[in-house]
Amino acid sequence: MGADSPLPNDVPTLQDLVRGLRAESAELRTQLRDQAQQFQRTIDELRAEVAALKAKLDRATTHRFGRRSERTPKPPKSPGDPTVKRRHDHGRASLPAHLPRRDTVLDLTPEERRCPGCGGDRVCIGQTQTEQLDCDPTPYFVRRTIRKTYACPQCPTTVPVEERIRTATPSTVGPINKGLCGPGVLAEVIVGKYLDHLPLHRQVARIARAGVTVAESTLGDWMKQSAVLLTPLYQLMLERVRACPVIWSDDTRSRFAKPGERTMPQGHFWVTIGDPTVPYTLFHFTTGYDAATGPDRFLGGFRGHVHADCLAQYNGLFANGAKHVACWAHARRKFLAAGDVATEAVEFIHRLYHLEHQLAPPDTPERIAARHATRQSQAVPVLNDLKAWLDAALVAALPKSAVAIAIRYVANHWAAFVRYTEDGRLSLDNNLSERTLRLIAVGRSNWKFVGSAKAGERSAVHYSVVGTCRHLGLDAAAYLRQVLPALHALGEKPTADQLEPLLPDVWAKRQQSRPLAA
């Protein structure tokens, strides 16, 4: 019926017309309501996406320009507290007493000693002393090994030559057979590359300043042969770490060169650190990021506690009996990234860290038991309150928001996060592994990549030795100067009993006992 058509006069027809208009109006209202709800959902999704992108931008900006420290803020101390350090309470520290002193005496000439008043000589009434730290350039020298040969002039020629003539042993000079380097230079190059992050071409230039020309390929060959020499010691340390009750483990990436490929594939260095009874730092290089070549191979058979991130690569170890101890520093990092909505969770974690700061190190059975008791009485209630907050906050949070991701990260691995309270030997976080991996991360900015997959495996051996020395506070160069020739003297297949005196911790104890014995 058109808009200009006359309306019918009978009531039933008009009623049918009104009913049709009502139905059409109701249908239009339903469509408008559905469209409004759809628009509102779209608006909510766009707002959530904008908020997520803004939070991501804020995290990136903070990561690039903001404060990076994750140190737990400590409660302020009152001015009257005797432990409060005054602002200007500082000064130059005295130089170590074990360093040799070379004196330079400044004196007056006979003319300057003469008194202008009476013409007599002045008398020395005192002196002032100033100490400065100084050094000489690296003193390279040539080590000549002379092997004398003796013969018996009385025996007839019928006596075998090997009985009449004898030459001083050993027949080969180490630590590298027919190598140009002595133990001191080889130790310095290893420490320079793997501890001081100096690539070999820079070390070539440093050696050249002393007037010695050594090719970079020669230094590379030294690294290859020294890794072979250190491998038996590395295997013994790995065997003992696998048998200790508590370890810390983590990984970091490193590219490696692969023949025939234009781009460098991504490899990984895995680190494992033993407990104080087996204080060794072991590295393992893999060309992939799978469990079979990573933790399952490197730590296969381990049944103790593993401090590690919540990576799927460790699941095989946990399925076979190892116990996962999760890292609260990683959890706190995720809650900090979530912003103000996760402030309460961060405060709970800070309370856990404040408690840990008051605990003694787990170096005796009594302290281990005390740590366990304190955590059970004080940390467990905080964890229970945190778990209640997580459950309540997850219901109100958007599924894809940063706070929901952080909550699910902790909630899905809650048993691993609270496991540290079950044993006083365990740690609240895995920061020990992260600090150790800086050895790779800092060096990576200098050498960029490892030469090949085999070079990565050899680098893991070197990093394990110098990393263990750093972990124990030892002079890695002094350790290698003694251990490298000793390993060469043991031959190709030394036994565990022969290698044990050369372990870094055993060597350190022997060095400490020498002055007492003398």
TrEMBL record:
Residues 178-457 form the Transposase IS66 central domain. Residues 58-73 have a biased composition (Basic and acidic residues). Residues 58-102 are annotated as: Disordered. Residues 112-155 form the Transposase IS66 zinc-finger binding domain. InterPro entries: Transposase-related, Transposase_IS66_central, Znf_dom_IS66. It comes from the Bacteria. This is Mobile element protein. It comes from Frigoriglobus tundricola. The lineage of its organism: Bacteria, Pseudomonadati, Planctomycetota, Planctomycetia, Gemmatales.
